[in-house]
Design a protein that fits this description.
2 copies of one chain form a homodimer.
Chain A: H1 31-39, H2 71-74, E1 78-83, E2 89-92, H3 93-98, E3 102-109, E4 132-141, H4 142-149, E5 157-168, E6 171-180, H5 181-184, E7 192-197, E8 200-201, E9 211-213, E10 226-232, H6 239-243, E11 246-247, E12 256-257, E13 264-267, E14 272-273, E15 280-282, E16 285-294, E17 300-306, E18 314-315, E19 317-319, E20 329-337, E21 340-350, E22 373-379
Parallel strand pairs in A: 1-10, 15-22
Antiparallel strand pairs in A: 1-2, 3-4, 4-7, 5-6, 5-10, 7-8, 7-9, 11-12, 13-16, 14-15, 16-20, 17-18, 17-21, 19-20, 21-22
Chain lengths: 381, 381
């Protein structure tokens, strides 16, 4: 042994994290992005046919590990509601289930949906277009729990803490996000502390035993494995609020918060696919085109379809369901396919006039890229 | 219009498919591979903790689209069993459910698991190590159905056809695979026509309403959305049997069939992860290591763990469950972490003496790569 060698310096947490970066020109998806893509997953687009997404097909994005909560332990699970409140609460599942339950049909979408279609590509979970799903979420209105606890004077936000634990850009953390109290405590915003998805207990990857569901906002707000709600007198500046999930053009900027879901339409790719290229094959003749469209800003009022590479557009029929204001709407159109290669495009516009862009809106985190979906189709006699 | 221009030739199916190829040196995962990775998914490795994999966490590999079979239509679903049999059958779900049911706990793994760790990388679904899952499958023994139908003289194989339809390397096809009749009709091999997974109807992506489950073989044999079984007098030479799923070193070779699952051990990555790098962080002191191990050739009899980059190995404790011969076994070991970077490796050996390799076994399709799992861990004071 070389007694002159100094002991290695103890490593620091920061060594676990690589700095945020953009992929180089023509840089393919790397090992770390692939590791995320292999464990998280999107909605297979043919599953847009279902009004509510069957278990296992709804998109999943887990920052760290899925916490292990055996069914036997779920009975021990406690949700704390404290901080600037007059009557702090500490509730088990049975106590939550004993309260009046509501069910909301909500479309959730990952804020990073579309990231892998950006150039340059921010290196993170590499979604194409499929990070979406719709479920019937059942639970207790957050507004009712907050009313029960009674926010004290000076309360401005509610901070939600999940049981998932990890490190990100050198910061060790429990996953944590906040909502303005005016949003969290407003029954009309429909925020839920949910314990069921499509009528069954939450699957582990969707937050078992408890999660937040924030209708109309990207999924990062809907904290899973929810174990604490703290009402605060100052805005939350934790990692997921102030560092991640900001729209920025350059690294140093404070950026704007990522929150409401931008409009998007997706189609069920018609015909059948090639296994590897995913090119779609149809036969000549009428081809029904169907899909879903949604926006967190308001109802989708118009869906247009192009079958000629965006030279001409036709209106699809949109079927809104006023009973489910936070869920996607179905749309349908018909197309008569002729032999050859075709590019199908679908484009949604919501009631506020927001329309999907034809060129990708770029930002450094790769958030909110609601570029139109383009589907390559080969019509073969 | 230029009347001298010749009409474009009608496209052919072949244009939907790119030729099979190997990725170039340092070529990252491309758009088509990413499209597959975004819709198919592996088991998040922390879910190795469950004896049976909860819905939505079991690996999924779908060649084409998930066929749409509404619950109302499942009652109309018919499984044909014909060809070289004396009494052809045509059975609905109710008739299958009325027969004696058996439940087998089976570990299924994709034959392409490990493909993305090969160099050069065959371009296809880019699995790392996670394409596995274990479920309790309930259904009717295939052997019982074949006995009922009565194979005629000269019968040699049973060919299974699914409802999933697509094109692959220019060949339009329903997904179809065969088994030798001696395997299919042998009650001891445990092949099932399954209608339930973990006690519930099959999820759409796992074959609703009916699928084959072939214990001990890679997943390509377990045909989903099963609608026909045809007993034949000659070996099946369809695409998925004779073209895909062969071990080949060069494109022209006939290759050896991909069939029985090679041994593999996986560990629950210890500690907690960095979101992006997936590096694991642990604190100094005792760290329990746990995981699962399996082989289609026989029980796993030995699992060894290395915590020093494969210089030294220790035996883990393996807990076999004789009641579930086709399911993975749990293993456990303890490790005392000291500050620094560590490479953990786990390696399984089965009762036939087959051991996981320390260098990846390469073939052109990227099948059966059961290279040992390596987990990078940072121990931070």
């Amino acid at each position: 042994m070389d007694v002159t060698s100094a002991p290695a310096a103890a490593p620091t947490l920061g060594e676990a994290s690589a700095p945020g970066r953009l992929a180089g020109p023509d840089e393919g998806i790397g090992a770390a992005e692939l590791a995320l893509a292999a464990r998280n997953h999107g909605l297979p687009l043919e599953a847009l046919r279902y009004d509510t997404t069957p278990p296992g097909l709804h998109y999943v994005l887990v920052h760290y590990d899925i916490p292990v909560v055996p069914a036997a332990d779920a009975g021990e699970w406690r949700l704390g509601l404290g901080g600037l409140v007059r009557r702090p609460l500490r509730l088990g599942l049975a106590e939550l289930r004993a309260r009046p339950a509501v069910t909301h049909r909500v479309t959730l979408e990952c804020a990073g949906n579309g990231r892998a279609r950006l150039s340059p590509r921010p290196v993170s979970q590499p979604w194409l277009v499929e990070a979406v799903g719709t479920a019937d979420w059942t639970g207790v209105p957050l507004a009712a729990l907050l009313a029960e606890a009674g926010p004290a004077d000076g309360a401005v936000e509610a901070v939600f803490t999940g049981a998932d634990h990890g490190v990100e850009r050198g910061t060790e953390q429990d996953y944590r996000r906040s909502l303005p109290l005016g949003h969290a405590a407003d029954p009309a915003r429909g925020v839920l502390v949910a314990y069921a998805m499509n009528g069954a207990p939450l699957p582990p990857q969707h937050g078992y035993p408890l999660r937040l569901v924030v209708p109309g906002w990207y999924g990062m707000a809907s904290v899973k494995w929810l174990r604490d709600i703290t009402v605060t007198g100052t805005p939350f500046t934790g990692f997921q609020q102030a560092v991640a999930y900001r729209y920025r053009q350059a690294p140093g900027e404070p950026g704007d918060p990522v929150d409401v879901i931008a409009p998007r339409a997706l189609m069920v790719p018609p015909g059948f696919p090639d296994f590897m290229s995913r090119v779609r094959v149809v036969r000549p003749g009428p081809v029904p085109l169907t899909g879903r469209a949604w926006s967190g800003h308001g109802p989708v009022v118009r869906v247009r379809v192009s079958a000629d590479g965006e030279r001409t557009w036709r209106d699809a029929e949109v079927t809104a369901d006023p009973g489910h204001p936070w869920a996607w709407s179905a749309w349908g159109a018909s197309w008569t396919a002729a032999p050859g290669r075709h590019l199908l495009t679908v484009r949604a516009t919501d009631a506020t006039g927001r329309t999907q862009p034809l060129t990708a809106p770029w930002n450094r985190g790769g958030f909110g890229n609601n570029l139109v979906q383009r589907v390559e189709v080969l019509c073969v006699p």
